[in-house]
Each structure stands twice: as structure tokens, then as C-alpha cells.
Amino acid sequence: MTTEERLEKLEMELARVKEGRENIVTANAFSLVDKSGNRRASLSVFTGAPTLNLADENGKLRASLAVLKNGPSLDLFDENHKARAGLLVGKDGPALTCSTRTARAALG
User: Per the domain annotation, does 34 fall within a domain?
Assistant: First the structure.
């Protein structure tokens, strides 16, 4: 890297600091862990869709929020990782699904 390139890079970094953008972190994925080191949340781009996953104290996935090609999606899971409720907002409107242990209903 030339001296001029280094100077330009430093000037850009200084401008970001002056604008208050020094706390921006860029990454492909983030994980949030509890005091025991168990992953409780993750934010990533999974198969092209930004996705936020939330886990319970046992590490089981309980909620997932994603922005899919056909619209945003929210899925809620029980303790056995069975989908119990879901909401999708697509180009044709919203779709809602709810499931119990014995029945499933869908709207939309």
C-alpha cells in the first residue's frame, strides 16, 4: 500500500469517527451467548435471507424472523422444535398458520 493510499484510508476512518460511525461492526454472522457460553441468538444471512434466530435456555430454536424473497416471515416453535405458529407477508397478502399437537389451521 502506498503512502497516499494509507493516508486516504486514515482520512476515511477519521471521517467515520467524526460522524459517529466508529461503532459500526460488519460481519457475515453474529452470535449472542449467555453467561454459560450457550448460543441464545444468531443473526446471519442464511441462503440469501437475513435471519434472526432465538433459542431458549436449552439451546433449542424457539423463534425465527427472516426476510425471504417472497416476503418477511416469523416462525414460532415449541420445545420439541415443532412449528406452532407462522406468519408470512407475501405479495398476495399475509398468511398465518397455527398448530396444536393434533390440529393445524391456516388463514391466507
Answer: yes
